[in-house]
Design goal:
Layout: E1 8-12, H1 16-29, E2 34-38, H2 41-50, E3 55-58, H3 67-77, E4 83-87, H4 92-100, E5 105-108, H5 116-147, E6 151-155, E7 161-164, H6 166-172, H7 177-184, H8 195-198, E8 202-207, E9 213-224, E10 230-238, H9 240-302, H10 309-340, E11 345-349, H11 350-364, E12 370-374, E13 379-383, H12 384-400, E14 408-417, E15 420-427, H13 459-469, E16 473-478, E17 484-491
Parallel strand pairs: 1-2, 1-3, 3-4, 4-5, 12-14
Antiparallel strand pairs: 6-7, 6-10, 8-9, 9-10, 11-13, 14-15, 15-17, 16-17
Helix pairs in contact: 9-10, 10-13, 11-12, 12-13
């Protein structure tokens, strides 16, 4: 930090020789210094009213007054103006009294002390400039703190407040330090707390003037201060809005949790009822379907030999419908059992499982030309029986929907994805419209006519239920006449718990 010397000094002395000596020393030390002289009361009054000086140097013994009176007059009109007393008639008592009245320095007027006058001017000026800059910084800081919405305080460890900013007063809805003290009470006291606990933020609940609750958050630190006594500096934040939001969020979460639990219970009940209904309906339908099939056989025997072509056609259609109904009932029963069977998770070699299903398909489709591309597959934790059902549905679908291709191409693979493994089956078959990707996993939902491709419409729904029970998901992608791809993900961990 650099300091310039004063630009103008008011020199008060009625001795022309002393004034000359003082001028000589000051001009020797400071360039471009303007020295204004006052040799009587009238000139002093004029110069004080003009106020075009930065510092005052005054003698003590004046013919028309004394240095103490001059000092008090200067300080009364210009409190921040530094004053140096330059005299050879003062005493120690006068010097002490002058210092109490605001004197900045005291220099003895003698040949050997004249050299001290410029030093005193420089020293006092630097001190004053430092004080002024500190005051400016303190003023700016105080103005900044007053603009903040954060309360600032200084207190004794006993809880006695020493200073607060305007924001804290506004926060507490008070207008004085004393009122703030009564509002905070002894909540700031920390005489017996361990040092580590003193630095922990703490929250306190107060009541506003309108009896509404107010939450404050305090962050305090302890430091040494004047006279060696510890001082507590703290920041206070009004967290009422945050507390209210937390409470509202907690109540909302509680409400949502209750709603989720209620809806989960309703869903579980509906699923159980649906499973029971599906089981009951499919089980009860088996008997009448078998009876219809039996009566068709009896009817065939009663008809004339051989039955005419129209009757034979109708009998064939009825028989096919009975067979289809039986298959759908069996599929519905299997779907019902899939949701009720207890899982037995083990580490399953997925490649071995795929090869098993592939071998079964080759036996059932001996005349098909299928180009299989099966990549290495990892082992995962799952229920082997249920997972075999998934692979069987996906691979049989790929074989079914590639039947019109001279060479069916089916690819099976996997890829890591975060904490899961994604398996896929791709084919070059008839594909499906993209907008049907979600629909095909519904019960009795098919992307193609049953006249072209046989099926019950339950296989993919069954696969979706199995994958969901393994905490995974299944999805599809495809385009008409450009093949289809089916994907399903399984978690990598062995903590297989069914989603609630």
């Amino acid at each position: 930090m650099s300091f310039s010397h004063p630009k103008s000094i008011l020199l008060i002395d009625d001795n022309p020789n002393d004034r000359l000596l003082a001028r000589r020393e000051l001009d020797r030390e400071f360039e471009d210094l303007n020295i204004i002289e006052a040799i009587d009361q009238q000139e002093l009054n004029q110069k004080l009213n003009a106020a075009n000086f930065d510092m005052v140097i005054t003698d003590y013994q004046l013919g028309w007054s004394n240095g103490l009176t001059v000092l008090r007059t200067v300080k009364a009109q210009h409190p921040q103006c530094p004053v140096i007393m330059f005299t050879n008639t003062g005493t120690e008592e006068i010097a002490v009294e002058a210092m109490k009245a605001g004197l900045d320095d005291y220099v003895i007027k003698s040949p050997k002390h004249f050299i001290r006058l410029p030093q005193a001017v420089r020293s006092v000026w630097q001190k004053v400039q430092t004080q002024r800059r500190a005051a400016q910084l303190e003023g700016r800081l105080q103005a900044l703190l007053n603009q903040l919405e954060v309360g600032i305080f200084r207190a004794m460890p006993t809880g006695q407040l020493l200073d607060v900013n305007a924001a804290l007063l506004n926060m507490l809805q008070v207008d004085s330090l004393e009122s703030a003290q009564s509002r905070l009470g002894q909540r700031l006291a920390m005489p017996n707390q361990p040092p580590a606990d003193r630095l922990k933020p703490k929250e306190m609940l107060l009541e506003r003037q309108d009896d509404r609750p107010m939450w404050l958050r305090l962050i305090m630190s302890v430091s040494a201060a004047d006279r060696g006594e510890p001082i507590v500096d703290g920041i206070v934040e009004d967290i009422t809005g945050r507390k209210q939001a937390e409470q509202a969020l907690s109540e909302l979460n509680q409400t949502l949790e209750e709603q989720v639990q209620a809806r989960t219970a309703q869903l579980e009940s509906a699923n159980r009822e649906l499973e029971l209904f599906a089981y009951s309906v499919s089980h009860d339908l088996r008997s009448p379907v078998r009876q219809i099939d039996g009566f068709i056989n009896l009817l065939s025997e009663q008809l004339a030999e051989p039955p005419d072509s129209a009757a034979q056609h109708y009998l064939t259609i009825i028989s096919d419908l009975i067979t289809r109904a039986g298959n759908m009932i069996d599929a519905l029963l299997n779907f019902s059992r899939t949701g009720r069977v207890e899982m037995s998770p083990t580490q399953v070699d997925m490649l071995e499982l795929v090869e098993t299903v592939k071998a079964q398909i080759k036996v059932n489709e001996p005349d098909r030309t299928i180009q299989w591309q099966i990549e290495p597959l990892p082992a995962v934790w799952c229920d082997r029986t249920l997972m075999q059902t998934v692979w069987q549905n996906l691979l049989e679908n790929a074989v079914k929907f590639t039947r019109f291709e001279p060479v069916a191409k089916i690819t099976v693979g996997s890829q890591a994805q975060g904490q899961s493994t994604v398996f896929f089956v791709k084919d070059n078959g008839v594909g499906f419209d993209a907008h049907q990707a979600e629909k095909i996993f519904g019960i009795f939902q098919q992307a193609h006519s049953s006249r072209d491709f046989e099926g019950t419409g339950i296989g993919l729904a069954n696969a979706q239920r199995i994958i969901a029970r393994h905490r995974g998901r299944i999805w599809a992608d495809g385009q008409r006449q450009q093949g289809a791809a089916f994907y399903f993900s399984l978690p990598n961990d062995n903590n297989l718990r069914e989603p609630s």
